[in-house]
Design a protein that fits this description.
By secondary structure, the chain is of the alpha/beta class. The chain contains 10 helices and 5 strands, in the order E-H-E-H-E-H-E-H-E-H-H-H-H-H-H. The longest helix is centred in the middle third of the chain and has 15 residues. The termini are far apart. About 9% of the residues have low confidence.
């Protein structure tokens, strides 16, 4: 009986202007099964060029870099290659900073002092269709975004480095409409629910949720569930919060 061929490893690109940081991250990732570090960039402009050349699945992106910073590079990469996921690697941990990263198109962020297991967990969760964000913090950020988009005819501009349109007009609906079940799951994504929580809430299997989340990601033209949640908010799918 033939063994099924293993899927190809996920292709990772590391972008940081410090060689020691790149070497440290490569050392953490290089021997991990299912992962392959295909390139390194010293700045955001080089990261964009390597994305054009190598088409990685995920970029580990530093923020403060010469020539083009990480936020601007993330926006440029997501503009050209929406299917490439980006994890911001930073020393800052604040809701405002995370909001900037998410609005630039990132799937989330990891801190530079993270352990190997924390870094691997974040990488694998993004590649596996889960969110690496703290659920409570993610929920707060999505609520803030919903408040900003409510009643706006134009989107609030992203940070100075990122004054470029991301995925078209703010309220442009996907070309292929979401089914009622996909709309329901999109709302739960925008509320910060995990796949397991969605499965329990809707009384369906985990595999059913994963399949629907992947369809939502494809239809909304984004690369990961974090950006699917952001897009769901932009499209007005986040239920109004009732005041206590």
């Amino acid at each position: 009986m033939k063994n099924e061929a293993s899927p190809p490893p996920a292709r990772l690109l590391i972008a940081d202007d410090h060689a020691l940081v790149r070497e440290g991250m490569r050392a953490m990732l290089v021997r991990e099964p299912g992962l392959e570090v295909v390139g390194e960039a010293e700045n955001g402009r080089e990261a964009l060029e390597l994305c054009r050349e190598l088409r990685p699945d995920l970029v580990l992106m530093d923020v403060r870099m010469p020539e083009m910073d990480g936020m601007a590079a993330t926006l440029a990469i997501k503009e050209e290659y929406p299917s490439i996921s980006v994890l911001i690697v930073t020393t800052h941990e604040s809701p405002e900073y995370l909001m900037d990263a998410i609005r630039a198109g990132a799937a989330g962020y990891v801190l530079k002092d993270s352990t190997k297991q924390q870094l691997l967990s974040a990488v694998r969760r993004v590649l596996g269709g889960e969110s690496p964000l703290n659920q409570e913090l993610a929920m707060q950020l999505l609520q803030d975004l919903a408040g900003e988009t409510d009643g706006q005819t134009e989107p609030i501009p992203p940070p100075e480095a990122a004054k470029k349109k991301r995925h078209g007009p703010l309220h442009e609906m996907p070309m292929e409409p979401l089914t009622p079940r996909e709309l329901e799951i999109s709302r739960l994504l925008a509320l910060g629910r995990t796949n397991r929580q969605i499965a329990q809430e809707l009384v369906v299997s985990l595999s059913t949720v994963k399949t629907n989340v992947q369809r939502i990601i494809t239809k909304l033209g984004v690369s990961d569930r974090t950006q699917a949640a952001v897009r769901a908010v932009e499209l007005g799918l986040l239920p109004e919060q009732k005041e206590e």
